[in-house]
Amino acid sequence: MLAALAAALVLANTGWSDGYVGVLETHVGTGVRPFDRLTALSIRELVNDAAMVWFFAAVGLEVRRELTVGELSDRRSAALPVVAAIGGVVVPALIYLMVTIGTPAVRGWGVPMATDVPLAVGVVALLGRRVPLGAKVLLLAFAIVDDIVAIVVVAVGYPADLEPVWFLLALAGAGCLLAAWRSHREALVLVALGSVALWLGLLEAGVAPAVSGVAIAIALPPARLESAERVLSPLSSYVAMPLFALANGGIALGGDALGAVWTTRVGLGIVLGQVIGKPLGIAGACWLAVRTKYAQLPPRTTMRHVIGVGLVGGIGFTVALLIALRAFTDPADREVASSALLTGGVLAGSLGYLWLRLSPRSGEDSGDAAESLDDGVV
Questions:
Q1: Considering its fold, how many domains does the chain have in total?
Q2: Which DSSP state fits 298?
Q3: Which one, 194, 244, 288, 318, has least CB within 10 Å?
Q4: What CATH number does residue 309 fall under?
Q5: What is the full DSSP assignment across 8-64?
Q6: Distance between CA atoms of 12 and 249, rounded to whole angstroms?
Q7: How far apart are CA 77 and CA 68, in angstroms?
Q8: Rounded CA gap, 136 and 352, in Å?
Q9: CA distance 333 to 267
Q10: What whole-number distance in Å separates Cα of residue 257 and Cα of residue 194?
């Protein structure tokens, strides 16, 4: 994804920029009723609305695993990451609202909420055993919960002009997936029919259709989960996310674009939400939960580690950029939001890395799980 993002930045800031934008804005159809939106998708929209289904399906499998056998399967284990995620989405949104209140830019309140799981975990993995396993698991767990909240925000908070009839088709598709999930047999036909109906219904209804991937993954028969994960993980990491970065990461890095990050309410709201709101919300919520004995810190993890992973949690790109594209219709606001996400992500990641790098070493965790996380395998 980083290579694709770098390529997009090069294309957008060189003589190839016109061709780059022209290809992305090329429409694959002219709009044929009743499938107005499906047959009028641009290449960029095709990536965002279709290829990103693989990304959200991979997230759905991860969520399902965490809810069944992972950190979110037990109430006591799940309490701290859930609390951290709530603080990590509420405080950035509030900071953004405080900066933009009274202006049209207030619509972007959801942009600084999302954490980019692969990038955040990747930064912490660079620190190896300096960061205890408990802090790494906390980061992964609250980022997953954070993704769940962000997915709901994309689907519900930023619909386009809602088409009720198509939304009924989406509900019917969701019903098929629910029936498949509750079935004790491999109801693959129900999953297939429900997947198509849900995605198409959401697309034509004006709701972000890519989030249907989460429901599709959760509805898969248990016997198929392992094989689905083997297929979806590389599709998400090596196809969907790089395509998304290539299609949406072409940010003009001229003085005006970067300067606007610090001189516009959209830019300031996003950067402050990422760099200040995320760690403040995550660490503050965790401190309160531990202080009231509602939850406890993982083994060998201190509040200093929590602050560090909270800073790293401010890295937002994939879902955050998707929200920005839904929230803003003005191309100038979209450009500022993209630049702000890049700026805020670099700042948050750098500060989080330095904070954790300079933190005193904790006792080392043992076992294969610790080794796998230290190697960056999650």
A1: 1
A2: P
A3: 288
A4: 1.20.1530.10
A5: HHHHHTSTTHHHHHHHHT-BS---BTTBTTGGG-BHHHHIIIIIHHHHHHHHHHHHH
A6: 9
A7: 12
A8: 13
A9: 9
A10: 43
Residue 369 lies in a domain: yes
CB 315 within 8 A of CB 123: yes
Confidence label for 371 from pLDDT (cuts 50, 70 and 90): very low
Report the share of the chain in percent with pLDDT over 90. 28
Joined together, the tokens standing for residue 347 give: 């700042």
Residue 362: which pLDDT band, with cuts at 50, 70 and 90?
A: low
In a domain, 272, yes or no: yes
Query: What number of other Cβ atoms are within 10 A of residue 184's Cβ?
Result: 7
Q: Can you give the residue range of the structural domain that contains 315? A: 2-31+75-158+252-374
Question: Which amino acid, one-letter code, is at 45?
Answer: E
Nearest to 229 by CA among 46, 65, 116, 18: 65
Q: Is residue 17 a part of any domain in this protein?
A: yes
- In Å, how far are 5, 159, 277 from 348, measured between CA atoms? 18, 29, 11
pLDDT score at 272 = 97
**Whole-structure pTM over 0.85, yes or no?**
no
- Residue 227 burial (CB < 10 Å; 0-12/13-18/19+)? exposed
Is the distance from CB of 168 to CB of 198 less than 8 angstroms?
Answer: no
Q: Which two tokens stand for residue 327?
A: 């929230």
Is 60 exceeded by the pLDDT of residue 111?
A: yes
First-residue to last-residue Cα distance in the chain? 17
Both tokens of 98, joined, read 């405080």
